[in-house]
Amino acid sequence: MIKDQTFRDQRFSMKQFTGETLENCRFYRCRFDSADLSETAFVDCLFYDDEEQKGCSFQHTKLQDASFKRCDLTMADFKNAQALGCEIRECKATGADFSGASFMNMITSRTWFCSAFMTKNNFSYANFSKVILEKCELWENRWTGANVQGANFSGSDLSGGEFTEFDWNNVNITHCDLTNSDLGELNIRKVDLDGVKIDDWQQSHLLEKLGMIVIHSK
Known about the structure:
Blueprint: E1 2-3, E2 6-8, E3 21-23, E4 26-28, E5 41-43, E6 48-49, E7 54-55, E8 67-69, E9 86-89, E10 104-108, E11 111-114, E12 116-119, E13 151-152, E14 171-172, H1 200-209
Parallel strand pairs: 1-3, 2-4, 3-5, 5-8, 8-9, 9-12, 13-14
Antiparallel strand pairs: 6-7, 10-11
């Protein structure tokens, strides 16, 4: 285990941290680009330089079965990362960029499955443009202002989420669990809700937005 260390302006080598557990470490303006972080665990680590407002780079990094728990991933760059089975829990990831990241295992050109465990995170203003996260654990996240243009969350557990300033019109949420979520400005006229799970109170809220008066029977 690597504990309580600080790294500044470093570019890490391919296998430097593969399979390691790092706890309470601080990374300022560091680059993990193209490194192999498979099965690497980061616990209570900081990846954001608050003074310079810069995050760390994980471009093209191998993050298969890697985990981040209670980390500050603000402005982190995960573009084109290979992240099948990646776990991100209770992290601050405001403004993080996941565009081009793959959480998929391609079986054939038309057959695949996804695996990701991303729960209780702050993904406000993060970029998930065109990211495929089908049938994944995505519950209790804050999605305020996140870019989900062309994203596919079909079949995922999005329960307990906060979806203010969320663009429902350009993301696939069919067969998702949206129970116990703040659905923001979801317009059921414009969004494909096939197979979506919601609560009774959410149903009333959505119908009232259409001008209907919902009477609760006693």
